[in-house]
Each structure stands twice: as C-alpha cells, then as structure tokens.
Amino acid sequence: MLSAKSLFQEVLDDDESFRLFCSIAASGESQGGWENARIAALVPPDQRDLAPKITRHGADEDKHGRIFNALLRKRGLQPVPVPPDTDYTMLLERGGIGLAHDKLKADRPLTVQDVVTYLAHSRVTEQRASEQMQLLRKHFADHPDIGRAVRMISHDEDNHLAYCHEELLRFARAGHGRAIQRTLRESALAEIRVYRDVSLAVMSHMGRILGWSRPKAALLAAGIHAVYAWERLAGWRRMVTLSMPERRDALGGPATAAPEFA
Question: Which runs of E-coded beta strand occur in 99-223?
Fold first, then answer.
C-alpha cells in the first residue's frame, strides 16, 4: 500500500535516493539562508527593527542546510548536484515570486513594499515547509537516524510561519492590507504550480533510482496532480489567511545551533 510513510521509508533506506533527497533539501535551505541574509542587510532604515528577525530566519535556514549535509556525512555520503527541475527556490524566483536575486545582489536599500513582498512570499512557502515537516515529524520523530533533525527543523519552520503571520498583520494595520492580500494570492497560486512541477520531477528522479514500475510511477503522478487540482480549486486559500499566532515574537531570540551527528 502506498502511503507518505512507506514512500519516504523507501527513499530513506536507499543510499542514492537519500543522497538526492538531502542534497535537494540542503541546497534549498542554503539558498533561503542567503536570501534572508541579503534582505536583512538591505532592510530600509525605517524597518531596521526587523533586521535581527530576518537574520535569525536566514541563520535557521543555513542551519537546516548544514543538518541535511550532516545526515549525508553520517552515512558516508557526499551531496550530488541538484537537478534543475527539482530546484524549488530557483523556479519560484524564475517565476517572479518573491524578491528578484538581481535586487538582492545590489547595494540599494529595499522599499517597504519589498519587505511586504518578502514576508508574503515567505508566509506562503513557510506554510508548505511547516506542513511537510509536520508530516515527517508524525511518522519519523522517533527515528534513530533522522528523528532529531526532523524535530528541530519542524520546530523552526513553525516559528518561521508564526513570524510571517505576526509581521504581516503588523504591516496590514499600517495600511498595507490590500497589497498584502494581492501578493499572498499571487504567491500562493504560483507556489502550488511550482510545487506540483517539482514534486513530479522529484518523483521521476526517485523512480529511476529506486526502479519503480510504470503503474506505481503513474499512480504517484496522478496523486500529485490530484493534490494540485484541490489546491488550485480551494486549498491555496489556507496560504493567504492571516491570524495572530500562538507563538508571539517567534524569531525574537538567537538561532539555535545545529546538532552534531555522530
């Protein structure tokens, strides 16, 4: 029987599929770390109070990248190049979602609207990250090899999502409500397309590594398309709502260190 747990267990048990999974995850987290670091450096003067939180966000993402690389080292594996069709962050940026890298590489301060765009984009992508890690935590929180990493990353992603909610609500009270809702909707509709495409690409690469049969691959692809159809119809709305989180000031302190993996 196909299930999220059985599929990931299959990926986890094979060195090559696990190497690809961790390489993709580490690359995406490291890219997020760079983006947040640049945004923190370019925050406009009247929003400098946000800089430490954005820095903390980036530090967490860097930490997650190091954790995935440490999981590889623990099994005596080296990262592999990330196939372009599985590069979630690159495909989002190429689709015009979030802040363009050309803008982040320049030395000109960002505008308040840029910060709103960054937070709205993050609110959408952190929703996805939080849900994915909650799924892994549900099934693998006590796993002897990856359980500790799953618990830590899941906790951080929940913090990131809470931070986005709280800061966007603050900007909404300051008069940016319409811009926030417009950007959230655009980001959510683009993200679900990219997520579908990346999911299909990852499943294709994993299928070749693990030798999946055509019926199994077709069933998984149909499932991905079904999720996209639901998200396109109604599921995207969960990514655009805003509510005050239970975790207030979730990124108000220093980032925690990455654990050591023997």
Answer: none
| Burial track 40-69 (b if 16+ CB lie within 10 A, e otherwise) | bebbeeebeebeebbbbbbbbbbbbbbbbb
Per residue in 2-47, pLDDT (tens digit) is 788 999 999 999 999 999 999 999 999 999 999 999 999 999 999 9
Q: Are 259 and 67 in contact (CB under 8 A)?
A: yes
Mean pLDDT of the chain: 95
Q: What values do phi and psi take at 227, rounded to 5? A: -60, -45
Distance CA(40)–CA(42), nearest Å, equals 6
Q: What is the distance of C-alpha 143 from the center of its chain?
A: 22
Helices and strands of the chain, counted as H and E runs? 9, 0
Q: What is the DSSP letter of 145?
A: T
Type of residue numbered 52: P
Is the pTM higher than 0.90?
A: yes
For 188, the token pair is: 């959510």
